[in-house]
Write a structure and sequence with these properties.
The protein is of the alpha/beta class. The chain is about 40% helix and about 25% strand. It is globular and about 55 Å long.
Length: about 250
């Protein structure tokens, strides 16, 4: 049963850069249909870990399994096609296309016709209904025809989530979804993450501790590239090594 529950598993994940070990022997198990947070002070190796899981970086050592399949060495595009999709902090792919058109481009990508701009309008129009559905789902209905570049900052994060959802991921990796957001936007995006996590798995790197406490089922704490602690927030937040890591280096 435990095997069935685990959707993503990394064992002995290690990354060295010219003698500097950024990630060291990390074991990570993410359970299906949970929100799992990866936290830690600056320089803890969180982003490197994310890059390894999606193969934007190749591990020096270790294996990664997604849905029971060894994906170590697969390309980022192949991994995305398998249903493990990372949402980038840079929100809009095409700043001068509308919100709806941005989501439609992501839907085209899913169909493998992303750069065939000579496709007939009829083909693209078929995607419009689904694009608008996704735009509505992330609360951007009122902004559908606005150029992405004109979106308020916090709403760009919602667009980023919509374009990620267009790829129909089974599991989403969110890299600091709350970075640079004000309180109102944080509430809105937290609610959106909770909503999209109902029928998929979410792994997120996040600095905002109240968001982590509120949203996460499981938290993995990294420090200096190694796992310090893992468990629910109530347990992890009281862990002496975790307190020391944060107090010692600041939240960063």
């Amino acid at each position: 049963m435990a095997e069935q529950e685990t959707i993503l598993e990394a064992t002995g994940l290690t990354k060295e850069f010219k003698g500097f070990v950024a990630v060291k022997n990390v074991d990570l198990r993410v359970r299906r249909h949970t929100i799992h947070a990866l936290i830690g002070p600056n320089g803890a190796g969180k982003t490197t870990c994310f890059n390894l899981l999606t193969h934007f970086l190749s591990p020096t050592a270790g294996r990664i399994h997604f849905n029971g399949r060894d994906i170590t060495g697969s390309s980022p595009a192949a991994i995305a096609r398998m249903g493990l999709v990372r949402s980038f902090q840079i929100s809009a792919v095409f700043p001068h296309l509308s919100v709806r058109e941005n989501v439609r481009v992501a839907l085209q990508r899913k169909l493998g016709i992303s750069f065939q701009f000579w496709r007939s309008e009829a083909v693209l129009d078929k995607l419009n209904a689904r694009a608008l559905e996704l735009v509505e789902a992330v609360g951007l209905g009122a902004f559908a025809e606005l150029a992405a570049v004109e979106l308020p900052y916090g709403r760009k994060r919602a667009l980023e989530i919509a374009t990620t959802l267009a790829l129909e991921p089974e599991m989403m990796l969110l890299d600091e979804p709350m970075a640079g957001l004000g309180q109102e936007d944080i509430k809105r995006i937290a609610a959106l993450i909770r909503e999209v996590a109902k029928d998929r798995t979410v792994l997120m790197v996040e600095h905002n501790m109240s968001v982590v406490a509120d949203l996460s089922d499981t938290i993995t704490v990294l420090a200096r590239g190694e796992v310090l602690a893992e468990g629910p927030y109530a347990t992890v937040s009281k862990h002496p090594s975790v307190i020391e890591a944060y107090v010692g280096t600041g939240h960063g």
